[in-house]
Amino acid sequence: MTAGTAAPAVWLTSARATPATLRQWWVLTIRLIVPAITTGEIITAVLAPITFTISFYIPLNRVMSFAGTGFSSYAQFMTPIVMLQAAAFTAISAAFRAATDMVSGLDRRFDAMPMHPLIPTAARMAANLFRMLVGLASAVVSVYVIGFRFHGPASHTLGFLLFAMLIGIAFSIGADVIGTVTKSPEATTQMLVLPPLILGMLSTGLAPASQFPHWVQAFVRNQPASQFAYGLRALGGDTRGNAGEVTWSLMTPPLLWAAAIIVFSLICTVRLNMKRS
Hints:
By secondary structure, the protein is mainly alpha-helical. It is built from 11 helices and no strands.
């Protein structure tokens, strides 16, 4: 009787594992970054913006320069769409990675470990941030080669880079949620190819809204990709002064779009991970 009552006292001890949260996040982040470098996967983040720049600039430069964009060069006009496509490409990779972790059962294994349920997502986002930095750096170099230049003060240049990062973070968080929900890397990749393509083509990233049919101009002018393009153009500046002034009235809509995507995605992320754990 004495031995039977003593055993539960040992198992019901108050001692618990003390997870090193920061170290766990770092280990999981390195798990994603190092293979991307050693296998050469990171090269795709470099090549994608170069491909976008070539595919947009070469066929459209003469046509759009003849039609007129109001800018000093077509490179100055189309730079935002290259930055947006680079961010979208990183987001597709983020969704693929989240879906792979989910379908392989890795997330369930993490749930069984003494680990905060949001650490795997935080590690994926850190790896996505690394890929995004590489992709956006490649995008800036690419557009510089074809003639884009920053014409505003240093604060606007810094704002351009930070705003591009904010857009990329918004896209990646949203894509991570989609990948976690779908649990299918193949379906997720195909699903996320169309929105950047459709919204990119039906935006002011490649042509001014006035060159679209009248019935679709309102959508082209106000959809999020166009609002992001307006903000990036204003921060990039132009010698002809048609890029727009960096004012709160111009920057508020794109900032609200980015904030709305981030807040909604964060709520979904917390609910998905806490519910599963």
